[in-house]
């Protein structure tokens, strides 16, 4: 079986909105008389849209009609129709995700563009998506080192830390190129946190004053220094804690960062310093890029080239892998199908002990609680080396202890493992939860942090479930 399908990624960010279309070739690699195994064997970007400024009605509202117009026009320019697209993602990121009508815009775009992954990417999830789009995860694995990707956009800087391919932490600061805006050579907007940061270092800036390149570069150097502090390259100052988005947490101090990649709109100004008018984009993005490039502390770790810069997130929004679960599984038929469920992935290193497995689930859970309540998630790990009865019982106990937020929610408890223990683990979870919680436990599926999963209705006489892993990354 050989099939070609089309995919789209749509990213509505703080500063820019863009689309990307790709062609995915899938094949059944299983032999005759065996359970089908369908993989993507080739991926090709076939169209990249123009990069638009994200249209807003006001400081608190996205211009939904203008966004839909962009999408329609780019579909026409690409020669695509919604009916031709089989998969894809619509993602609202950065400051735009905080707009009061963000969810309504997502719903409208999903109906317009197709039945895809739809998510308002909070700062932690956006950090993961942009880092993987930039290739930081694969780079850290290939180089056997610790890499941080800094996705420096218009409103925020999302940071993801990878050690040998495994995610070790995420963070987000209110540092970005459009936090100071310039119109007709005068300051038209200053984000309060940045105004306060400048003031604490003796720099006074106010709306309406002339845009002084030297003064604004000094402010951008302060912002770059905050990024160095976030990477633990220097000690944090008194301003640092207040610059985390939504009072978020810093990166862990270990492992020590050995290299960095940069993505986001400001990244191009880091890697390729532009000449000419520094305020050409109506903000301080060019100056911030220069400040990051010239910061002595950020310069103490190796700077690697990113696979993608301004398109890192959107390029990550277009591929999927279709699989079939193992046959030793447990599921609730009346809860299927389930679509667009984000994966909370426990790395193999964190799975080494039950204590670190529990800690990983507890540490990541806030990523999937944007409003303080657990969303539907799937907890994923390999399940290797835990095949005996006692080991599976202990594993089930660890999951129930660490996934209490999900268990208390209205959503079923979904567990995805690679090893052939789905049915035994699912039954153990069901017993521990006294048959009062819907449990879906499938095996034979490999996932990554940042993936989404669709679980279809049972096939092959109920022995297996069709599974779609929507991997928000193009360079895997």
From TrEMBL:
For this protein, the record's InterPro entries field holds:
ATPase_NBD (IPR043129), EutA (IPR009377), FtsA/MreB (IPR050696)
Name the domain of life: Bacteria
Show the Pfam families listed in the entry: EutA
PANTHER family per UniProt: CELL DIVISION PROTEIN FTSA-RELATED, ETHANOLAMINE AMMONIA-LYASE REACTIVASE EUTA
How is this protein named in the record? Ethanolamine ammonia-lyase reactivating factor EutA
Q: What is the originating organism of this protein?
A: Lawsonibacter faecis
